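Sample intake — Phosphoribosyltransferase
Collected from: Corynebacterium crudilactis
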Amino acid sequence: MELFLPRACGGCGAPGASLCTACQRVWRAPPKLARLNVALPVWTLAPYDGPHRNVLIAMKERGRADLADFVAAAVGASISYLAAQGEVEHDITLVPAPTRAVSQRRRGGDPVERVCRKTRLSTFPCLRISSSTPDSVGQSAQQRRLNMRVELLRQPQTPVLIIDDVVTTGATISASANVLRAAGVQVRGALTYCQA
Ligand SMILES: [Zn+2]
């Protein structure tokens, strides 16, 4: 199929590779602390913009699984960077941020979990957004935080880093950290590809 389907860069649309060298370079920036009003460090690679935004949309909405390798490489490099800074363990366990079961089914699997697994770090999906959580569209940050319900499905036995694609208010990450910490899990922080 490769021979017949022309590929376009998932970041900028240039013909040729899955991700052109210019977009790969943009994706390789080290993580920075996001300014969010949450009780744990949240690191992020970039604003939700340009090649970052395009790659996430291509993975999520257009099923471009070929991009997951590049995103996983960027996530893996970011975790090595954080480990070198003493922020997380080198063999930290990754917990994909929770999704609603219904959106996961529609997309044919969780793209964040797929990326986590491709980093080859141990990946422990254990969170789910409760079906009693109302849709966040049109809600203020405060309302989202109050309404967000996350369930712990099984308990990690090691320190964890929560991974998500885009952080907006931090409500999902905050609720995830709370439910993990309440169960005695050490949450080192969260790493997201983008901040909206
Ligand atoms: Zn590109």
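Post-analysis note: The chain has one domain: 34-195.
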